[in-house]
Amino acid sequence: MSDKMIKTSQGELYYVIKEDRVNITSYTGEDEQVIIPEMIAGLPVRKIDKKAFMNSKRLKSVILPDSIRKLAEWSFSYCRMLTSVELPRKKIAMGHSPFLGDDRLQRIVLRSRKKNPDEEWLAMPEKDRDDTAVLLASLYNMKNTEHLLNCSTAGTDEWFEGLDRRLLEFIDEPDEEGHAEMILCGEEDLECTLDVFVTNKRKKKSRAAFLRLLHSAGLTEAVEDRYKNYLLDHVVGCATDEAWQVMKEELGHLKEYYEYYVEIGCLNDDNFTDTIVDLGDKQAEMKAYFLRWKEANKPSEEDFFDSFEL
What we know:
39% of the residues lie in helices and 16% in strands. It is α/β, with parallel strands linked by helices.
């Protein structure tokens, strides 16, 4: 059975008809956004086949129809520019790693279906829906999260509980865990020493903690404190400072992140000078914010002399 083809704006979408449904088999082209139609040749589009969009180099956004039922193995893998995927909020079968290697994937946006509106989802605050999209996207490149990749339950209280349970398991596991397995499996350059592995793992933990705290839908106070404490234990002046390194190297251009870094006490009087020295001439806006914070919080002259009172 030969594949049939329909045109997109800057490419071609190939498909096959199987009984009463359509499967998308492959795509070629230069589109930045692809909208998969709900019906082709009068039949519903049910599946994206294995590796169908693999290595689509310019693809940034994909919108899938309400009719979709399955994303097969590696269906959107190694789409290096892909940042957003939109799916109907329903149960969708996921093959192995459909978004493997999509390092820029930021949101998996869920929408209520047209024929069966999800009143609970629609009633949710917009920020909570956006937080769910960000957090859901983050799970696709994390181990042991398959049970959370359920579009029909994402955003529920139970889903957030499961999410935090898995993230905290990751944060609590020994930093050395996984190094021997990585070497045996040849997953990384063999020059990745244990010290490098441990540092990189602490950075991954810091990224996870920052992301969850900044997307706080469904977050309980007790769990929030555990994420905060992890970050506070890895800033300038601590035994290791991977949370600061992530802020300096990756997140320092994002205002909401560096403001939060200060808000929770990662920057303080004891580590301020060393932080500024280590920052050097990087992240000018963050540095200016740190300096304004220091100026606003310096002791007044009266407070200075009061400190000498018995």
